[in-house]
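Contributing new records

If you add data, match the layout below exactly. Sequence lines come first and carry their own label; structure lines follow with theirs. Keep one chain per record. Anything else will be rejected by the validation script.
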Amino acid sequence: MDPIKYIFEKPALTERIARWQMLLSEYDIVYVTQKSIKGSALAEYLAHQPISDYQPMQPEFPDEDIMALFVENKEDKNEKAWTVLFDGASNVMGHGIGAVLIFPENQYIPMTARLCFNCTNNIAEYEACAMGIRAAIESKAKILNVYRDSALVIHQLKGEWETRDTKLIPYQAYIRGLIEYFDSITFNHIPREDNQLAYALATLSSMFEVDQDAELPMIEMKSRAEPAYCHFIEEEVDGKPWYFDIKHYLKTREYPEKASENDKRALRRLAGGFMLSGDILYKRNHDLVLLRCVDAKEAELVLKEVHEGTFGTHMNGHSMARKILRAGYFWLTMENDCCTHVRKCEKCQVYADNINVPPTTLNVLSAPWPFSMWGIDVIGAIEPKAVLTPSLS
C-alpha cells in the first residue's frame, strides 16, 4: 500500500525497483512509518469537505413569547409532486433510453425508446431525461422531482458543474426551456439500486430492434415466491406421484398429452438425471450414487423416521436432508420439507437449547438481618461495603 516503504524495504530487487532505489539514494531518505492519529481523523474529514456558505450558530432565541414554530408548506394541497426516473444505455447492440413517470397516486407509466443514430452515453442520458420531462408536461404536472443515478447529468442540469462538451450544450438548453412549464422542479442523484426499473427499460430498448411496421409485443411481469414445480409436486391431486411423467417417458419414450415444445425439451433434459430399473425410478446423484425416488406419502414416513425414529436425534432441517440423501432417498422438495417438519416438531420446541439466563443481574429484595431485628424495612439490595451495624447506645 505504501510505495516508498516497498522500494526501501524490498529484499529482492528487480530491475525497475533497483533503478528507483538508486535514484532516491542520493537524497539520504530515512523512511519512518507514521503512526495512526485517531484524533485528527475528524479534522481531516472536515478539511477535505469545506463548506462555502458557512454561517455561525446563533443560540439566542429571537422571541421568548413564541410557543411553537411551523414550517409553511409551499406546495398547494391540490397539487402534489410527480416523479420521473430516467436512464440511458449504450452498448454494442445499440442505444436505448428508458423513463418512468410516477403519479402522485403511485401509478407508474414506463416509457422506452431506441435511438437509431450514433450517440454517446451522456447524450442517451439527456434524451431519456427529455423524454420523461415531456411526458410530465403532457400529463399537466406542475411540481416535478427528477431522479437519476448519473452524477454528471444531474449536476450539469442543476448548474453546479460546467458543460464543456459541445454535443451536450444544446440538450442542456432544451431541457432548461422545458423547465419553464413547471412551477417547481428539482434534480436529485440516487444510487443505482433505486433506479433499476429505468435501467431495465433502457437496456431492453438498446438490445431490441424495433420494426416500425410490425406490432410491438406487450410484456407482462409477474412475481412468484416458489418454484414452478412445487405447485403440482406437493398437491398430487390426480393421485399420481411427482415423477410420473419422467417415469412414463423413460419407459415408453412418450410425452404427456397437450405438451408444448418447451415442455418436451424440459422433460428430456430433466429425465437425463434419472434411471429406471424395473418399476423403480432412481435419481443419479453428483457422485453417481443412485437415490430411490419416493412420493409424498413415503416422504412423510421417511421424515418421521429420520427425525424422531429409532436412530433419530431431532437434528435440524439441513442436516436431516443430508442424512436422507445418505440413506438413499430423494424427492425434489426434500430440503424445504425437512425444514418445515423441524419447525412443526413439538419436542424440538419444548427441549430447544434456549438461553434462560436473564439479561441483567437480579437484585435481592430481602433486608439484612441487623435491620430486620430493629424493625427497619429496607427496599432494594445493599452492597456488603454499605451495610451498617446498629450501635449499643
